[in-house]
Amino acid sequence: MVKMMTEYLVLEAISQGKIDWDSIVTITEKAASIKGSGQLLAQGHKYRVKDLFNQMSIYSSNDATVALAEFVGGTEEIFVDMMNQKAKEFGLSEYAHFSNATGLANEFYGKYAPNTSGANMFTARDSAKIAQRLLQDHPEILEFSSKPQEYRREGDTSTELMNNWNRMLESWIPIGNLYAKLYAYEGLDGLKTGHTDTAGYNFTGTAERNGLRLISVVMKTENEDMRFGETRKLLDYGFNNFEKRTVITAKTEMEQLPSVKIKRGKALEVPLVTQSGLELVMKKDETNDVLEITAEPVDEELLVAPIKQGDVLGTLTVRYGKDVVHTINLVASEDVDKAGWFTLFFRAIGNFFKDIWNSILNIF
User: Residue 241 — φ and ψ, nearest 5°?
Assistant: First the structure.
């Protein structure tokens, strides 16, 4: 599952224009020598980035993974530094550490072991966070992870046909093989399996139904059947008990702060509405009463006319439990022009006599 971070960095390099899908990668002696999953590449042969990405994401090819890491980073060691830096950006746990691009133990590389410290390690929550960022920032990953099969060179039937190690893909169903009968799961389209003798059988899965996408992580099971069986239990629980719900709609007045007072305007206040809506994943049996919703206006010096429709004049905070906090801008729903000096003069006089009258009342 370490390869998810490699996938992220390759996709990031493509999105930044540093490489593209048709960039040509020449396979090095090191990449060609890597054992384990893959072993499809020969030194000196040339592949498109897209073909190597297919091999990495579908067949979990270690040789293709190293080739891509070297191509993006210059060396695998530099690429590993990039992985660990990205882990910090993602806010992964203190335990998260990458020592290579593949997820293998460094000693498995033999004489080509990268000159890096420690071992690949992260928690189940870390794995879920990597998957979440991968799906959010580079949703095109699903174009690859959802493929049940692909040829070593995409579309070239003269090369090896690779079967995806993810037996739960819904896309196995049209193929109608044993995987379709035993494992295929409605809506499942990713994301990454993994196995070593030390780590056991692992799987970070993702599935979408009715607009709700879930991520599951299973680690250290005894065999392939168990990792997919436990994933099915987790996803069934999620889809049976949770739903995506619109809790705030855009352009809506909120009772927590329906308006704010304005200085020097023709109007004394301006109504507010939400700038955007908010969807949350919530338990199906919960009502919106469990949400804590508060609102605050912006600093007083900003509440001065003229005000334009859409100006941000407040903030709505929505809390769900102790970990989920979202903020939404509250904006002016209409313009407020600046008042002329004549209006401001008589308003000041009115306020003066109002203050005197209130003072007299307070005496009694």
Answer: -120, -10
